[in-house]
UniProtKB/TrEMBL annotation:
It comes from Pontibacter mucosus. It comes from the Bacteria. This is Phosphoribosylpyrophosphate synthetase.
């Protein structure tokens, strides 16, 4: 991945990730499964997704205007991104899904040792 110091804006990070093959925009549906905005027929559960990287952003004029961008890869090889806000504007479905993905990753690390 590109040096994070150079990538101060969400647009710059998205452009870099697109160049690196992260072309899909993911979302989490009301049923708690991940899908792409482009192909809504294919769904992914937390055990089928890996968080490759994440980037945090803070609004210049309002520190409460914070968001996070995740670079994701599915077991089927799709690469894309999903973003979420912090605080009262956060999407609870996205938070829950990504927390499950993170927890699965921690468990996998323990099994490998």
């Amino acid at each position: 991945m590109q040096d994070k110091v150079e990538e101060r804006s969400l647009v710059n990070v998205l452009n870099r990730l697109r160049k690196d093959g992260y072309k899909y925009d993911f979302k989490v549906g009301q049923d708690g499964r991940l899908c792409t905005m482009e192909e809504r027929e294919t769904y992914f559960t937390p055990d089928q997704v890996r968080i490759v990287d994440h980037y945090r952003f803070e609004g210049e004029s309002d520190p409460d205007d914070m968001s996070i961008l995740y670079a994701l890869e599915t077991k089927s090889g799709l690469k894309g991104t999903i973003s979420n806000s912090y605080g009262p504007y956060a999407d609870e479905n996205v938070d829950t899904f990504l927390k499950q993905v993170e927890d699965l990753g921690k468990n996998l690390d323990k099994k490998d040792k």
